[in-house]
Amino acid sequence: MLKRAIIVGASSGMGEALARRLAREGYKVGLVARRQEELDRIAGEINGSGAPRAFTAAHDVTDTQGARDCFDALVQRLDGLDALIYTAGVMPPVGAEEFDPAKDRSIVEVNVIGAMTWLDLGAERFQIQGAGTLVGVGSVAGDRGRRGQPAYAASKAALHTFMEALRNRLATKGVQVLTIKPGPTHTPMTADIEKMPMAIDADQSADGIFRAMARGADTAYVPIQWLPIMAVIKSIPSVVFRRMPLD
Amino acid sequence: MSDGTERALVELEGRQGWGMSSQALCRVLYPKHPDDVVEAFKTAEQHGLSIHCWGNGRSYGDAALNEGNLLLDFSRMNRIIDWDKDSGIVKAQPGVTLNRLWETLLADGYWLPVVTGTQYTTLGGVVAVNAHGKNNFKYGPFGDHVLAFEMVTADGQLREVTRESDPELFHAAIGGFGWLGVFVSITLQMKKVHSGRIKVLPFLEEDLEGMFRGFERCNAEDWDYVVGWIDAFPGGRALGRGQIHAARYYAEGEDPEAVPSLALDRQHLPSRFFVVIPKAWLWWLAKPFAHRWGMRLVNLARFLSMKIGDHDVHPQEHARFNFLLDYVPNWKWIYKPTGLIQFQFFLPKDEARRVIRRALEMGQERALESWLVVMKRHRADPFWLSHAVDGYSFAMDFQVTDKNRQALWDLTQEYAEMVVKAGGRFYLAKDSTVSGAHVRRSLGDSVLGRFFALKRRLDPNSTLMGSQLRRVFGGLGEELADLGDAAAKLEDTPGEPTVPAQTSEVAGLPTELREAAAAPTSPTLAPAEEALPPE
Questions:
Q1: ipTM (interface pTM)
Q2: For the domain that residue A233 is a member of, what is the CATH number?
Q3: How close A80 gets to chain B, by Cα (Å)?
């Protein structure tokens, strides 16, 4: 049978690109996002005139109570599950002198709580199944606390740590837990950002994620060039880092 | 409701096809008695769940899975109910393994009339899929040796069925994948043997044409078993080279060691290779070769080693000859972590040379050579969903990875198209990839229609349903059942249906419906490709 994956946050950007890529690589895909019309468009393009390979479910990841029903319904449509990929994320603009708890909370709800909810559902299933792949899309931003996006960086750091803990729980049970740390990527979420050094497009990012899944990786920087760069950045002492012109 | 049922309703169990490439979480029940099966149908009805059966998990793909629904695991319903050594008739529960059967009956001078390549399949499983062995061309599939079975149908009724009492259900349920009812006992005619050994002739062939000539020669010489192994890697003049093993039963009084060879310790497979290497290590030792070039080397080494091996007729114990898949325990782990699929197709003998040659060439052109290829000879049989035709089968094992998955699926779809056009068939017991459209064109609407119409009568709510049925036929069952009902109405007399001998989609239907089927005007009779595009 074909492999089966659920992609949360599949209506645009990295999630959409990954859904298309997985469908091309022999997966049936369950697409989750808020906007049904966007999901229908993508599913229609994936399915073309052939047998259905993409199924959709409109869902807001901040509705944690509704996640299980959505998950179960998609698993039923896919007749099982082999991979769950959480790509949903928000990064609203934050002013240099802005401190807005409501905005920070909205970031954490999508980037952390939503991710934990969906990844827990996948983890619970894959633990029983003794097989499966969990993918959480973090960010290089989660590796250091830059001044520009405190809540976003913290949310991604939280996700990285959560993924590491899941990996430590599930590694002996045949489950791959993969943390993706993309560098700047051209997506609707980053459309308003002017400075995007070494930015790649969503298809390139999806390619990197798929390759990391295929080789059974634990953590993958996408593109790989960010691995040495972040190794250097992570080693910079805080007293120096805070004086560097990094937003 | 029993504790087990309550637990199954809330706790999911992970189950995996033997090839490790298909998995599902199922609500598993462990029936111990036919009444438990009746109870399971009530539970399914109350909770809106479907039911499928699990024997010992030896199907490569999704044939024994039922995602999110009830799975009846027959490991606790594994008794031999009755054994009459005078007549050679055994009655057993479906969960009994072939291993247990032959180990119990061999001392009385009986062997199974048909065995699978592993002895760890279950009786219920092999009858449900109507499995074949290396002697299919001569002895037919398991179903040909079944005398009777007891089956619980979705209405909770226990039916005892023989070839004579209900020929329709008998020929539909054997090979019906548990989609019509659940076997709770099977009565089988065993084969009398006059020795615990069999005479085996191995010989090499340098190309595919040689393999076919070898099979034909064995057929002409009336051997009881014939099986071929093919090295799928070399091209050109060596394309299709391989080895054939033919085997023949000893006649009464022919084997001087007839009595001692019936002892179990003579039958058991060796626990070590080359005296010192524990068999359990072999998969691990082979793991470094688990890639295309490594397997090219392994196949080459195997071929060359056979060149210097013994090519004379020699005696070999039944178990050692038949259960090749058990020589290396857990050999599937070579394919870890992503697993393997097997694609097996059956071709009429006149088409086999051409299609098999092209199949080997296509694998090489796409760098998707099968790591293990097995070829067998078959005959047609009267079972409704039969996979066998008068010809040859070709079984190919492929490693599945994230990188080759789609290419492999595309290749198997192209194989399937070639097979259908050649009038061939597929074997769902091992399948992971075949589409409903290909199965429909292969078996024909007449037979499938009759099958699904019978299913609708026996199981109106489609309670008996597994992952494979959903994957292959999806929502097609109702359409096919309509077609089957239409066929039944047009028939003058009920009774044993005419099953197409091999390939004709409309064979067995009355003339009026045959004409209707030829004209794609009715929605229910539209070409299969339109009704269900290939996946």
A1: 0.82
A2: 3.40.50.720
A3: 6
